[in-house]
Specification:
eight-stranded parallel beta sheet; TIM Barrel; single chain; 2 domains; globular; alpha/beta
Length: 321
């Protein structure tokens, strides 16, 4: 029997990567992925009905790095940190693919292959691997250091080989996204050369970080076609802001919003902290009076858990919640 996910969609038994590939294959469509960094932000985006989620190491990775470690995005977070978070988010609704940042792959070729296999086992639909050095930084910060082309290609080749091994042994799959941060320091031609080579090796999607004009964005999509191209929408970054409709016209197939959850949470928590410190009290809104904390529990699947308990014969919630 078909079931429904937390966003109300009919359950699709296909693996996450297969569903993401179907989305990318749709003509004249754009896969819009809001950034999430924890279970609550993911639940909210699922409740709003988004078809795909994105979990990064920066922004949402300042999300993952900051929420798990209280640290900035300076290459501190490890594979285990990000894998635990990605696995949890991917498990919340198996009908919705999750794309996760895989940083630099966390090491040499053997480690990159292990990363890819681990992401597949976690149920992640897609990942991106970049060409910065391991002690890397956010793509919209200055001073990024890059590895040489052959080191980068070895990372992508290792990712492809790791995926092939999983396909042959478990049937597992993942969409590999090749990201380059070389545009700022090495120029457009070198950046496109790197991405074209990665597609040739076996990457599925190209990710040019930090284009600085609409013309450059459109040109990259045209030159990399028919490979899908990903746009990173970072407010205040070096890339011009465009709507989803504008991005689609430029030729993009995926658009990620890495900062949307983390920055909203950051501002709201900061405002609440200042309010409590300065007034020694909190303002209770009409929504809070009406809904209370149960609204948050509801988003996180409270009634689904209650119903499951009843079906299993449990009696813990017979008097209500």
């Amino acid at each position: 029997m078909a079931s429904t996910g937390t966003n109300g969609a009919r359950y699709n038994p296909k693996p996450a990567a297969a569903r993401l590939r179907e989305m990318l294959a749709r003509p004249d469509s754009l896969v819009a992925c809001p950034g999430v960094y924890d279970g609550l932000s993911a639940r909210i985006m699922l409740r709003e009905g988004f078809d795909c989620l994105y979990m990064a190491l920066r922004k949402t990775g300042a999300g993952t790095a900051a929420s798990k470690l209280g640290m900035p995005d300076l290459g501190i977070i490890t594979l285990n940190d990000i894998l635990e978070n990605a696995s949890m988010i991917a498990s919340l609704d198996r009908t919705v693919p999750v794309i996760a940042d895989a940083d630099t792959g966390y090491g040499g070729p053997i480690m990159v292959a292990r990363t890819v296999k681990s992401y597949i086992q976690a149920g992640v639909a897609g990942l991106h691997i970049e060409d910065q050095v391991q002690s890397k930084r956010c793509g919209h910060l200055a001073g990024k250091e890059l590895v040489d082309p052959e080191t980068y290609y070895a990372r992508i080749r290792a990712a492809v080989l790791g995926r092939e091994e999983m396909r042959s042994t478990t049937g597992g799959d993942i969409v590999i996204i090749a990201r380059t941060d070389s545009l700022q320091s090495l120029g457009y031609e070198e950046a496109l050369l790197r991405l074209k080579k990665c597609i040739e090796i076996g990457a599925d999607v190209a990710f040019l970080e930090g284009p600085t004009s609409l013309e450059q964005m459109k040109q990259a999509c045209q030159e990399l076609a028919p490979a899908p191209v990903l746009l990173n929408a970072v407010p205040g970054g070096v890339t011009p802001h465009v709507s989803q409709e504008e991005a689609k016209k430029l030729g993009y197939k995926i658009m990620i919003y890495p900062a949307i959850s983390f920055e909203a949470a950051y501002q709201a928590i900061w405002d609440s902290a200042k309010e409590l410190k300065q007034t020694k009290d909190i303002i209770i809104t009409e929504r809070q009076k009406k809904e209370g904390v149960k609204a948050v529990f509801g988003v996180c699947g409270l009634m689904d858990c209650v119903e499951f308990d009843k079906k299993a014969g449990g009696q813990s919630y017979n008097k209500g919640v």
